């Protein structure tokens, strides 16, 4: 199981991507005034370096802004949107952690892309695949092939 897992051997820190407040405002369609207010309330956090006093945001806070906006558009209060956002971000962290550990490779089974999610059993005799079929995912446990 060498495959794609080794394509990105080092975790990329997406929080190194930095966005100015005006860029965030345009990307998410939220006014800079709203962003400053959300920051004042503690719902989002800007990053300020020693060289600049302007507000910039990392990827996590861009996602946070996007989710808050989504929940507000769905009719939630700002506080409700913040709570829902934090719950969603916690779930997203768990999904990312799961994929970092489980994902092994993308292979082909029956002519279809199959995501190798690693060993299914403690004895490492069978592998769990998620087989992608247009709009559906089929899960299949396949006995490990003998390595030559």
TrEMBL record:
This is MerR family transcriptional regulator. Pfam families: MerR_1. The lineage of its organism: Bacteria, Bacillati, Bacillota, Bacilli, Lactobacillales. It comes from Apilactobacillus apinorum. CDD domains: HTH_GlnR-like. The keyword Transmembrane does not apply. InterPro entries: DNA-bd_dom_put_sf, MerR-type_HTH_dom, MerR_fam. Residues 18-87 form the HTH merR-type domain. SUPFAM superfamilies: Putative DNA-binding domain (SSF46955). Keywords: DNA-binding, Repressor, Transcription, Transcription regulation.
